[in-house]
Specification:
globular; 9 helices; about 250 residues; about 10% strand
């Protein structure tokens, strides 16, 4: 069975790629494949881009394990069925977490940093120059408001940036909605891996209330302002930074 990718998804990914120059001739891109709806849709979309592109680039999907004896049989079989180059990168993150995470402490940032570090290490080991992450527009909006409300910082998620180790990190889905990706995964009966694979489920730690609060807030705002995410997407690309309270940015 072929994977059906909507024209809207492929069109938006194409526009994002053209605007920010995410994929270029000769790239070897590590695609972070957690097995969730976002990363599974992303790897199939990038495989389709590879078929359509007038230039050549390589893709390798990498799944990072936490050292919990994860069963990735269905995910590996899915990749084999659709000709997706797939590697499993083993880590001992679960063991390290047992030593580092305090009872009732937050865990999201810890596991995120560890997973990102493992992807970077894998990219270098496999000779990749770019790493593709599956963040979408909802993630970017939530991150922006979390930084805005809790940290007093105007910060979102860049479509493309250079990491400290020289790798280029790209986010091909950054202008797509989460619901579009969920619908794609559901329609194609993808073997998605959900929260049951999260190591935090085995620790006595508090749930990440800040992001959940942002999801609720944005959902309620969108009910009142249906074009909210259209405006957010536009605003992220139209920044009058000399109008804020940073004297280094004053245009005088």
């Amino acid at each position: 069975m072929a994977i059906k990718l909507s024209k809207k998804i492929m069109r938006q990914i194409g526009r994002t790629n053209a605007t920010f120059g995410l994929i270029e001739e000769g790239d070897k891109i590590l695609v972070g494949l957690s097995g969730g709806k976002d990363s599974l849709t992303m790897i199939h979309a990038m495989m389709e881009q590879q078929r359509r592109a007038p230039f050549s680039f390589e893709i390798i999907a990498v799944t990072v394990t936490y050292g919990m004896g994860e069963d990735l049989t269905r995910l590996s079989a899915h990749c084999e069925e659709f000709g997706i180059p797939h590697r499993i990168y083993e880590t001992n993150t679960y063991e390290i977490a047992g030593e580092k995470i305090r009872q009732n402490s937050s865990f999201c940032s810890f596991f995120s940093r560890m997973r990102r570090g493992a992807l970077y290490s894998a990219a270098i080991e496999y000779g990749c120059n770019k790493v593709a992450l599956g963040h979408h527009l909802d993630d970017a909006a939530e991150s922006f408001f979390m930084n805005f409300i809790y940290n007093g910082h105007m910060r979102a998620l860049a479509p493309k940036y250079r990491a400290g180790n020289g790798l280029i990190v790209i986010r091909p889905l950054i202008q797509l909605r989460e619901r579009q990706l969920a619908a794609c995964a559901l329609e194609n009966d993808m073997p998605t891996i959900g929260d049951e694979a999260c190591p935090s489920m085995r620790f006595d730690v508090k749930m990440p209330h800040a992001r959940a609060s942002m999801k609720t807030m944005l959902f309620e705002m969108e009910q009142k302002y249906p074009d909210l995410f259209v405006s957010i997407n536009s605003a992220f690309g139209h920044i009058s930074d000399d109008t804020f309270f940073d004297p280094t940015r004053f245009n005088m």
